[in-house]
Design goal:
The structure is a single chain. The protein has helices at about 1-10, 30-45, 60-70, 130-140, 160-165, and strands at about 15, 20, 55, 75-80, 90-95, 105-110, 120-125, 145-155, 170-180, 185. By secondary structure, the chain is α/β, with parallel strands linked by helices. The protein starts with a helix and ends in a 6-residue tail after the last strand. Bound molecules: guanosine-5'-monophosphate (5GP). Guanosine-5'-monophosphate binds near residues 21, 99, 125 and 132.
Length: about 190
């Protein structure tokens, strides 16, 4: 997605050859116009999948997840990383090891919001080792629902998550694929429409 790649080039900060900081438009301050375009792009890429629900993870997945859900005209649910006092329902849970924080969290979703009949689009901001997406897929499986796709805003293709998810048979669509962060951001060469 051209607009997103331009934004990454102009505002992204390479923190190391493994980590990209994009907190001026995605992870802290959020660019609403860019999020609208991201939502449209996800909706286009998954329009054939008969999605009934978007599932993401707090907090950085919520903005792109919400915009994708708006375009697909379905609800969005976000997995919580901390137990909420009001989250007293029957919970679906999975363990996720955080790439950036190097800690393991239990994430949870109320069973009430995922049904066996749901065709779920998983959305996240970054794909590194694939742990967050796999944990979300596990929650969908626990609910007896179907993962119909995984949409990622920024995939770091030099890390193993993308291959891992595709080898498992998931349809993964990433709006920007980074080939390397060594000496600056370089993207995977793709036909751009
Ligand atoms: P994974 O579970 O695929 O290893 O990592 C994905 C999660 O880690 C994302 O939800 C994202 O929050 C975080 N993450 C991974 N790599 C980066 C990165 O380079 N920059 C930022 N800002 N977050 C990242």
């Amino acid at each position: 997605m051209k607009l997103l790649k331009e934004k990454i080039q102009s505002e992204g900060k390479v923190l190391s050859d493994q980590v990209l900081k994009v907190d001026s438009f995605l992870n802290h301050q959020i660019d609403p116009q860019l999020m609208v375009e991201i939502g449209k792009e996800f909706a286009n890429r998954f329009e054939a999948e008969q999605i009934t629900k978007v599932l993401t993870i707090e907090s950085s997945g919520i903005a792109p997840g919400l915009m994708a859900a708006l375009e697909l005209n379905v609800p969005v649910v976000f997995a919580r990383k901390r137990r909420s006092l009001t989250l007293i329902d029957d919970l679906l849970t999975a363990e996720v090891h955080s790439f950036t924080k190097n800690e393991t969290n239990q994430i949870s979703v109320s069973r009430k919001y995922l049904r066996e009949t749901d065709r779920v689009l998983i959305i996240d901001d970054f794909l590194a080792n694939g742990q967050a997406a796999l944990a979300l897929a596990e929650i969908v499986k626990e609910a007896g629902a179907t993962v119909s796709g995984i949409g990622i805003v920024i995939e770091k293709s030099f890390q193993p998550g993308g291959d891992l998810l595709r080898e498992k048979g998931f349809k993964v669509e990433s709006l920007a694929r980074i080939a390397s962060l060594a000496g600056g951001v370089s993207f995977v060469e793709e036909l751009e429409v």
